[in-house]
Amino acid sequence: MRTLRPVSAELPSALSAASIPPPVLEVLDGLRLKGFQAFLVGGCVRDMLRGQHPKDFDLATSARPEEVQRCFRKVIPTGIEHGTVTVLVQGHHVEVTTFRAEADYVDGRRPTKVEFHTDIEADLSRRDFTINAMAYDLRRLVDPFGGQVDLAARTVRCVGKAIDRFTEDGLRALRAVRFSAVLGFSLDPDTQAAIAPTRHVFRKVAFERVQEELRKILLSPGAARGLSLLDVTGLLEDAVPEAKGAPFDAVVNAPVDEAARLAVLLAHAATPRTALQRLKLPTKVIERTLELIAGAHPPAPDASPRAFRLWLRGVGREPEQIAQALGVAGALGAPIDALAPRVAAVRGDPLTVKDLALTGADLTALLGNPGPQVGALQRHLLELVLETPAENTAERLSNAARQWCAQVADIPR
User: How many helices and strands (H and E) does the chain possess?
Assistant: First the structure.
């Protein structure tokens, strides 16, 4: 199948030079050969205009979902009630959505109904921000709301009245902050001013969606700016009140890792677990964040080796775990240049019960039947080796175990 190429000399050079995947071109071509309008829309157009390769290419068309299905051999009705289908071409998935307008939003997230259109500008008018409300069909760029101007000005501005956009969909306020942080753009004053009055709509958004946006903010180079915007607009109080007063500037100094940056954000919170659970984070992320929070304040450089062993036991001995923990500590002001060699010096020492030279089975065989006390015995032996790693031999631990059992009346000797 032939592929269409730009024919207008007035197109921005960034669009003319952009690389568009062949499967996407094939779908655009297939729809237009059947007499339908078809455009690349949204974030992919924004990214191409910025000279960046988009992660995803979304298409909008005047064809209704059933008409799109007739145009291609393999089509998945992924969201057909909202006008969206996925076309399978050359082993790739290409999402195609019919031009649409939306009726009133009743729950702060979803419209009551979707109305299909044949007008691309009507479709763009329902979108959130001007930089996301542009369409490109390889021949012309449709930009009815000044998206190119705002891209050049590095500004995030709502389409139409910001208070209307945020009242329709509560997630848009958080997305505005996210785009500002990730792209390094400023928020249009009217757009920023509309966030606080619409916080009641934002509170309706599922925390799973809030988590996704917050994660992108935290991992962005503009994390400090994003967090400050969340704070001044009141969104932080609604989403993560435990982070109030956190050192936002310190977050960007932590490793670019979700748990590490959450640890810096919540290091001084009274109830960090509550915040992490409210955000519906994966258990693995929650537990790692709490480990890093516990290790956010390491021993002083002149502390005892035992103190460093205890700190290392909490954060983990693997190189990447140590790097994360020291990164969090350093972001919060700890002298990591002095701490790193002290940590490295004890990394190979026994830190947990699993590191003991005698297992639980060994102790049971050695002592006959220590029964339920075997756990207490293991903790006793661990305290010995945390203080003096040289004690971690089978012979020395056997002697120490016998001495301990001799002091416990209910263990057979």
Answer: 23, 11
155 burial (CB, 10 Å; 0-12 / 13-18 / 19+) is: buried
Question: How many Å apart are CA 147 and CA 25, to the nearest integer?
Answer: 23
Question: In the structure encoding, which two tokens stand for residue 202, read together?
Answer: 């934002």
Q: Domain segments of the chain: what residues? A: 13-144, 154-239, 255-349, 353-406
**Tokens 């799109």 sit at which residue?**
68
CA distance 113 to 111: 5
Please name which of 23, 59, 32, 65 lies closest in space to residue 44, comparing C-alpha atoms. Answer: 59
Parallel, antiparallel or unpaired: strands 155-156 and 186-187 = parallel
What pLDDT sits at residue 8?
39
Backbone angles phi, psi at 57, to 5 degrees: -120, 110
CA nearest 44: which of 172, 165, 132, 160? 132
Structure tokens at 50: 């910025």
Q: Which CATH superfamily is domain 13-144 in?
A: Beta Polymerase, domain 2 (3.30.460.10)
CATH hierarchy code of domain 154-239 = 1.10.110.30
Regions of the chain with pLDDT less than 70: 1-9, 102-113, 370-371, 409-413
Residue 158 and residue 168 in contact, taking contact as beta carbons nearer than 8 Å: no
d(CA 145, CA 390) in angstroms, rounded, equals: 72
pTM of the model: 0.86
